[in-house]
Structures are given as structure tokens and as C-alpha cells.
Write a structure and sequence with these properties.
The chain has 99 residues and is an alpha+beta fold. The chain is built from three helices and four strands. Strand 2 and strand 3 form a beta hairpin. Helix 1 runs antiparallel to helix 3. The longest helix has 15 residues. The chain is globular, with a radius of gyration of 13 Å.
């Protein structure tokens, strides 16, 4: 079953965060448990609030990714750029429709 994690964060330094995320994407694509896709969203009503929607093939792959020390290091770098603690929402995909 596919698994999606929604990361809710606020920052005034989104360009720096995008740079860190880009480095991580380049590294992560070589792992067999990496996300299959991700989307970065900006909240129209709160200009410094963003959401990263990250899709994995399964919950188990997401946990392998989460347990990887490289992921922890990247998350720490991102958290340092945030203006409040990051919130995570973990979701199992029950249905998926074509776009």
C-alpha cells in the first residue's frame, strides 16, 4: 500500500530549503526505498507556510528512509531553517485516481 507523508513547515528561507532538498533528492534517488515523488506546496493564505507531500511505495520503505542517517542529517539542516517546529501527517493511500 502506498504511503504519503505531509510535512507542514514555516520558513522565511524557502530558497535555502529548496537547495537542501535538491541535494537530498540527488542523493536519495540512488536508494531503493527513496520517495517515488514529492510536491512542494505554498499556502496562499500564510505566505511563509509550506507543505511537502512525499510519496513512498509503502510505509516500510518510508520508515527505512526515515531511519537512514543521511535523512536525519538533511532533516536537521531543514529544521534549522524553519521558524517553528515541523509537523508531520502520515497517511496510507486508500484510493488513487488519475490526474
Amino acid at each position: 500500500m502506498k504511503f504519503i507523508q505531509i510535512v507542514d513547515f514555516e520558513t522565511e528561507r524557502v530558497d535555502e530549503m529548496r537547495g537542501v532538498m535538491g541535494e537530498w533528492d540527488d542523493e536519495a534517488e540512488r536508494r531503493d526505498y527513496s520517495p517515488t515523488s514529492s510536491v512542494l506546496l505554498k499556502d496562499r493564505d500564510n505566505p511563509n507556510r509550506y507543505y511537502a507531500v512525499v510519496t513512498f511505495n509503502s510505509y516500510d520503505e518510508a520508515m527505512r528512509n526515515s531511519d537512514d542517517p543521511r535523512t536525519s542529517e538533511m532533516a536537521g539542516r531543514l529544521e534549522a531553517l524553519c521558524t517553528r517546529p515541523t509537523k508531520f501527517v502520515n497517511c496510507d493511500v486508500l484510493e488513487e485516481y488519475p490526474s
